[in-house]
Prior knowledge:
By secondary structure, this protein is α+β, with helices and mostly antiparallel strands. About 45% of the residues lie in helices and about 20% in strands. It is built from five helices and three strands.
Amino acid sequence: MKSKWKLYVVQCCDASLYTGITTDVQRRIHEHNETPKGARYTRGRRPVQLVASWRCESHSQAARLEYAFKQLSRSQKLRWLKRDEIGGLLDDR
């Protein structure tokens, strides 16, 4: 069975990046933009726009990749987004 977990990155209206994990990216984007269920960080930086998302093998892998991505500098994050692949993120740090 394929995992439904995804790592996603959104850009906020102030050009900052927010990273999260979810099983439904579109629902989560809606929550960030329209409901109090969005992350506290994004509530004051609406609207947010999806920049990228990647399918993960499990919740555990998604959480590890989220943590690794959040440890990168902004310029490193932008390079990863340009590559449009997350595969070696854990190895490249």
